Amino acid sequence: MSDARTAILGRLRASGQTGPLPDLDTAVLERKQWPATERAALLRKGMEAVHTEFLEATPADWPAVVRACCDREGFKNLLFGPTSEAGSALAAAWAPGGTHLMPYDRPVEAFKDELFTGVDAGFTGTVGGIAETGGLLLMPGPAEPRLMSLVPPIHIALLRSSTIQDTFWSAVKHLGWGRALPPNALLISGPSKTADIEQTLAYGVHGPKRLIVVLVDDLY
Amino acid sequence: MHADTEIKFRDSAAKALLDPQLRANFRRAMDGLIFKRKAQFPNPRDLEDLRDLSTAIRSRSLLNLPALLEQFETQATKNGIQVHWAETCDQANELILGILRSKGAKTLVKGKSMVSEEMHLNAFLEEHGIEALESDLGEYIIQLDGETPSHIIMPAIHKNKNQIARQFSQKIKDAKYTEDVDELTAMARKVLRQKFLDADAGLSGVNFAVAETGTLCLVENEGNGRMSTHVPPIHIAVMGLEKVVATLEDVAPLYAILTRSATGQAVSTYFNLITAPRGAGEKDGPQEMHLVILDNGRSRIYADPQLQATLRCIRCGACMNHCPVYTRVGGHAYEAVYPGPIGKILTPQTEGVGVRHDLIHGSSLCGACGEVCPVKIPIPEILVRLRREATHEDVGSQVNGKGTGRTATEDWAWRLWALANKRPALYRVITWFATRFGNALPAGAPLIKDWTRTRTKPVPARRSLSERVRAKGVPHV
Amino acid sequence: MKEVYFYATCLVDLFFPDAGMAGIELLEAAGVRVIFPQGQTCCGQPAFNCGYWEEAREVARTQVALFPKDIPVILPSGSCAGMMKNHYPELFHGQADEAQVRAFSSRVFELTQFLVNELDVKLTDLGEPVKVTWHSSCHAVRDLGLVGEPKQLIAQLANVELAPLTREHECCGFGGTFSVRQPEISGAMSCDKAADAEATGASVVLSTDGGCLLNVNGTLEAKKSPLRVQHIAEFLWERTRAR
What we know:
The structure holds three protein chains of three kinds. Chain B is an alpha/beta fold. Helices cover about 50% and strands about 10% of the residues of chain B. Chain B folds into three domains: about 1-40 and about 310-405, Fumarate Reductase Iron-sulfur Protein, Chain B, domain 2, CATH 1.10.1060; about 45-295, Rossmann fold; about 410-470, no CATH class. In chain B, a hairpin with a 4-residue loop joins strand 5 and strand 6 (about 215-220). In chain C, helix 12 links the parallel strand 7 and strand 8 (about 230).
């Protein structure tokens, strides 16, 4: 198929369209700025509008908040990444009994069926949030596999206020994603939803039915 | 030479207009979408600045397209994505079939992709014994009925929930009849989750491809895109060659204006940036990733400086949501993969302006599409240009089928029109007769017959303005 | 004394001479001398929009030649003004007389925009209380940005109440040759526009364009509705002239 490649690129080049490149005026993006102390509330407003639930926590008590949530909901298990920063902190604070902390520590092929049918909730960290529209930024990888935030019916995500950026644009710059992206990066603004039937919103169509954000106030 | 295979938009549109349910479904849906988009842009300055920026980004990308495609390919390859090129849909289909066969894959689960619709991939794979299952809820609904999408973002928008309830109860095993949208959604979830789990491969489209990082960006709300790209062992993506942009920073404003223009959302539920297949130490994600870059007439569109703007499109669907024609006839009447205003300029360029001459004229040139387009594609101007191309063979034009929409009747009509309008004396004689005897024209005369289907016959005034001006003594030269 | 040319447009010349006369009278009442070149026919838009650009150019050339003086050219139509102002330069791009045509285009004004923005007219309402509605012509809005001016003029009339259409900016379905090439779609759009107008409870629909007038009036008449569309110039003149 290198023939197709040569032909296509040849045609595109042959048309010889150069000319001056238009300037990019990003003022409209730069205008979107909020004080760090206001970003969490804005993010929350955006995400609650699409059915995201929030739990408030402090840097010290968030593992207990996650635990209390699991107990309250009666989860039999919670999938987590044992080598991730958030995951190892959670495990360290996890008291025995009740919800079983289930490590995602083997290739998915080894437990695909169980992942799809036997897991009540998944727990992940985040690398940031978006104030303007609401949204979490995730960087799945070896420590936090990609499907943890997708397959279990409930996704619990840990978000630190200090990591919330103004906009997706400013977050991309801040995280340096433009230069080197991880294999998978992700923005999530709420539980899975659809409006394909008569424009009526329905949640939990393919991905998680609920998204619970544990919001850690670490600004002071 | 006149294209004898011309497809008559007029006929299919006329049929659609007779379906009150269809018209009600579209009107309600489009009204909702117009309202929601408007609410996303409370500040007109922000909207215009964002449109300008998005237009500039897309224009820059196109001006640099060959270099960006090569940069993207190099980077994606380095990341472990296998990049393939296809000049035609047939080539693209064969490529995908080859990939699937080499892995012994029997089932393919699909996230939403308009390019795969363009390729008629599902039918092709079915013919070759591979099941291709749509997983976007709207796509799933229409696939159950063997239909094609009637909207590029909301493929099942022509159906109401009663129709879907009936369909599910008949076609999904053990399904009961319910009109509850949550229950209907849950039924589809149950069926499709199993399919994701079992599928040998997944396929997706691409919203943006980032040259600098070799990343594929996918915008979605349902999560089926993530399922299709991350659960099966193989992920195959298909995209039109125009989708590439320079950097991820360029993507941010395009993403911001895409979701707002499309469904009136500030942000989608998921924005998925896929840069590589499963890497070292990773426990999930596809073990193999392929990308098929499709031309299918795009490089020809690219060659024309004015028509190139067609390729700026980011497939938001705002033009159709705001189109008074689309709202009334729905997407199927266009008999094209891409309906609505964008389809009216894209389809004739890929299929031929003569074959699609009637479609090019299926617009009142009201300009509502150009007004809302997030990347300022001058759709009305391009329609006029394509009307030109359909009826003339201009030197230097590379437009597909140029001149094949020409008819002797229309040629003569415009020649006579010009004759009358450039000779004031002749024009005055004609208006003199029209004012005195215009009413005598039979209602069955050509043009009048079409006009009077829903209107009374136009009757000229008893004296023309120029006569009145002379009589009244207004200075006239 | 300020002088302007008046370009009636073919539809106003043949179907709505009262609107044309009213436009002239409004200008004269504002102290402007109006010149009406007799050689005027059509701006060429129908041929231009159908791709017959040579024919459109031939006609446009004869029209431009009728307006040699460097004074404004006023049209009682947003669509034709848009054609002459914005599309003539495209049509003549690369032609020997492009510069001359561009100079002409820069002098073109739509009537209500000229009345408001250039003349700053003040109107005194002498009519009985009435409820009207406003249909904005697509080309007036999108080619000329004509949104506020007609409403500013209507707002000056003390006894006139403006009831908005549900879909003020939606096309009425005329679209020139569209109305006869795609009569079914065009008719559906026209019927919806007529119904929208009727639902406002207004006793008259106002607009700037002969095409919309011809189309919506024909539709209203076919529906046996008593409602009619009137050109805004005619309405303004009727309300403000001393009897």
